Amino acid sequence: MPVIPRYLIFLFQVVLAFCFISFSGLHQSSSSSSFNFVQGKTKLNIKSSGIDMVHASHILCASNRTLCEDIMELLEPFAEDDLLRPKLERGFEELARKFSRCPTGKRNGGDLGYFPRGEMTKDFDAIVFSELAAPLHKPVGPHQTSNGFHVIMVHDRHLADAEMREQARIATEEAKKKREESFKRNMKKEQGKQERKGARANARQGERRPPASSKHRAAVGSHDEF
Ligand SMILES: *[C@@H]1O[C@H](CO)[C@@H](O)[C@H](O)[C@H]1NC(C)=O
Predict the structure, then answer these.
(1) Which ligand 1 atom is at minimum distance from the Cα of 64?
(2) Domain positions in the chain
């Protein structure tokens, strides 16, 4: 039966892309007022490290876009009023447990926990790290990624300090300009060197040129035209 292997491959893909990673030793340190994470043995403060972090849940509908649309329809009425947020979150968890094709649905009601930019797939990051694509506490979707259609809800988002990011951008641009200028200068220098070398070679050739027969002179003359 070809259905079973395909299903297994799909499950593998999903597990790899979304689940293993979010349990690989990333925990939010609970008692800090600033935003610190412990990753392995390294404590990260996202403001100073410049690392973007997000806390998101998702329901994976695989190829069934209609399922995602139906889920959105069920959730949207609860997203209109902040007072309904607890109901919205419980509803999301329930629907994730019932319908999500990602094991996080069963295990955590779709909750992927906190994760930094670069840990999930690029297309998933593009949604969860965008304030426009995924406003906080609002279910959004259907969004398609390489893993299929999702309904996504972002609970919390910490983007690296804008000022630091701007400083990094300016520094990168200045370095690039310097590199380009230095490259141009070196090219000019090298060109000059080659020209002088060529001139010296020509001069030497001229010195060594023997007083020759008219036949020889004609041959050298034609060579000089190059
Ligand atoms: C997709 O999901 C809908 C429920 O929203 C369901 O009725 C339909 O059978 C599903 N389609 C497939 C192909 O599983």
Answers:
(1) 1
(2) 6-160, 162-205
